[in-house]
From TrEMBL:
Residue ranges annotated for the Fe2OG dioxygenase domain, each copy included: 213-313
Bias (Polar residues) ranges: 1-15
Names of required cofactors: L-ascorbate
Family affiliation: Belongs to the iron/ascorbate-dependent oxidoreductase family.
GO process terms (BP): gibberellin metabolic process
Keywords from the named record: Iron, Metal-binding, Oxidoreductase
SUPFAM superfamilies in the record: Clavaminate synthase-like
Species assigned in the record: Carex littledalei
Recorded catalytic activity of this chain's protein: gibberellin A12 + 2 2-oxoglutarate + 3 O2 + H(+) = gibberellin A9 + 2 succinate + 3 CO2 + 2 H2O; gibberellin A53 + 2 2-oxoglutarate + 3 O2 + H(+) = gibberellin A20 + 2 succinate + 3 CO2 + 2 H2O
GO molecular function, one term: metal ion binding
Classification via InterPro entries: DIOX_N (IPR026992), IPNS-like_FE2OG_OXY (IPR044861), IPNS-like_sf (IPR027443), Iron_ascorbate_oxido_reductase (IPR050231), Oxoglu/Fe-dep_dioxygenase_dom (IPR005123)
Disordered: region residues: 1-20
Listed name of the protein: Gibberellin 20 oxidase 2-like protein
């Protein structure tokens, strides 16, 4: 049974926002039921179980930062091989403080198990990525993901945002996510250096381009599910951003990558962070590097938490593949665009899957040829 809320006060404002009337769906409040609402059902073609475990390369950032030229080259070659096939790799010896990683995960669970009226005070507003979402049911009316999210954006202070929406007692929580986001930003720039080396565009090329990057730090919470085979935690998709650094809790599986014609599980590796190439970076390589198609599945026995750090170019910067990556006998696959245009497109389209960037590229081409 869905959790229905008549919008008793303007501040909730749920009925006007939710496309399917005044009903929102909260997986933490549905986890103990026998069955799940049909709005969470996904097509059978998208819930085919994984049939393998991905042997993802572990890129050692300590080697990259301090190693000799030949060991750095070896890391760059391993990175290139992974990015040319499925756009997915792990980073180890990444230098991010374990305490901040654990604290951010623990705090996210404390938030998601809070009373609904507390969570709704931080509910995402139209056209904003900031805030709480219950299964995206404020946006979608079918194929709902079995998850709740809390997203922090880089436009403004996380401390102020949390304090003003939830109260001063939440400001310390904001400090933790500001520290977390700062550490992830630094790690992003190191990864960008290695990506530049792997593509022979030079160590500084992408580092400089993303020096002023924007980001979205998103806490995902996947409660245990009574019918996990019928739904998805996060459905099959590619991230539209440039890069995603994912911290997943160490003792729960769920993340899967589509490669080699099948879904392959990516079990957590203690001390490793997951990194996947997104559509924006794929476009910046003229499709030489692949945007990773992935999903998160749920189970009936345990909850799962993850924190995704989404790296987006500064929103008005022109995204264009480096000339050296567009060979003499290959054409540019994308007209120039900005993250602002692609982000808007992701928020308009009903679903963001592994083909969405191609629709976006076609629309870009149509609009540029009609000018
Ligand atoms: C710009 C973004 C949109 C999403 C969050 C960031 C990068 C990843 C996107 C997303 C996770 C891709 C799958 C579908 C989605 C709706 C989700 O399941 O959350 C996407 C995010 C979003 O639109 O909120
Ligand atoms: O939680 C996960 O394992 C993956 C989440 C994800 O892909 C996303 O939020 O884009
Ligand atoms: Fe993703």
């Amino acid at each position: 049974m869905a959790t229905s809320f008549m919008s008793t006060s303007k501040s909730q404002n749920i009925s006007e926002d939710a496309p399917h009337g005044n009903t929102i769906f909260i997986p933490t409040m549905l986890a103990n039921k026998q069955t799940i609402p049909e709005q969470f059902f996904w097509p059978k073609s998208e819930t085919v179980p994984a049939t393998g475990i991905l042997d993802a390369p572990k890129i050692d950032l300590q080697v990259v930062l301090t190693g000799d030229a030949s060991s750095v080259k070896a890391q760059a070659n391993a990175l290139r091989a992974a990015c040319e096939t499925h756009g997915f790799f792990l980073v180890v010896n990444h230098g991010v403080d374990t305490q901040i990683l654990n604290e951010a995960l623990a705090l996210s669970e404390q938030f998601f198990i809070m009373p609904l009226e507390t969570k709704l005070k931080a509910m995402q507003k139209k056209n904003s990525m900031w805030g709480y979402s219950g299964a995206h049911s404020e946006r979608f009316s079918a194929n709902l993901p079995w998850k709740e999210c809390l997203s922090f954006t880089s436009d403004g202070s996380i401390v102020e945002h949390l304090g003003s929406s939830l109260g001063k007692e939440f400001e310390p929580m904001g400090v933790v996510y500001e520290k977390y986001s700062g550490a992830m930003k630094n790690l992003t720039l190191s990864i960008m250096e290695l990506l530049g080396l792997s593509l022979d565009t030079g160590k500084d090329y992408y580092r400089d381009f993303f020096q002023d990057c924007e980001y979205i730090t998103r806490c995902n919470y996947y409660p245990r599910c009574p019918q996990p085979e019928l739904t998805q935690g996060t459905g099959p998709h590619a991230d539209p951003v440039a890069l995603t650094i994912l911290h997943q809790e160490e003792d729960e599986e769920g993340l899967e990558v589509f490669t080699g014609g099948k879904w392959q599980s990516v079990p957590p590796v203690p001390g490793a962070l997951v990194v996947n190439i997104g559509d924006t970076f794929m476009a910046m390589t003229n499709d030489i590097y692949k945007s990773c198609v992935h999903r998160a599945v749920v189970n009936r026995h345990s909850n799962r938490r993850s924190i995704a750090f989404f790296v987006c170019p500064q929103r008005n910067k022109v995204i264009r593949a480096h000339d050296s990556l567009v060979g003499p006998d290959s054409k540019r696959l994308y007209s120039d665009f900005t993250w602002s245009q692609l982000e808007e497109f992701t928020q308009e389209c009903r679903r963001y899957d592994d083909q969405t960037i191609k629709y976006f590229a076609e629309r870009l081409l149509e609009s540029s040829s009609s000018e």
